[in-house]
Amino acid sequence: MLLADDVLGRSREIGGEPLDPRYVAGFEAVDADPRQTLVVAELDGDIVGTMQITILPGIGRLGAVRGQFESVHIAESLRGQGHGAAMIRWAMDHCREQGCAFVQLTSDRRRAGAHSFYEGLGFAPSHVGYKKFL
């Protein structure tokens, strides 16, 4: 399970079989939403990457539509080989085709390697994000 393929993921995701039904319910909800795209990257028949793209219409920035990237994961053994960059470039092209003015994402503060990766692709750490569990 790519969600648990690093230290942070292993601490907050549940792997193994059978798959926890909450993952199935989440997948079904995302899959049913026309503003969502679930991406699966394959290499030689193996799943090596995943991400979720949400198209968000907005009022700010003159009604700009934005693309939101979530749950971006590349198999730990393949990081640094260009697979993640290819997936992000594909996702940015997809968002352009959907009329997005820009794309955005959040990344856990502890993922310094991911931050360098995104900055290398032209992303800027422009905002501070907040989260509150309910």
Automatic annotation (TrEMBL):
Residues of the N-acetyltransferase domain: 1-134
Alphabetical list of CDD domains matching this protein: NAT_SF
Assigned keywords, A-Z: Acyltransferase, Transferase
Superkingdom, taxonomy of origin: Bacteria
Gene Ontology molecular functions: acyltransferase activity, transferring groups other than amino-acyl groups
The protein, known as: GNAT family N-acetyltransferase
Source organism of the structure: Croceicoccus marinus
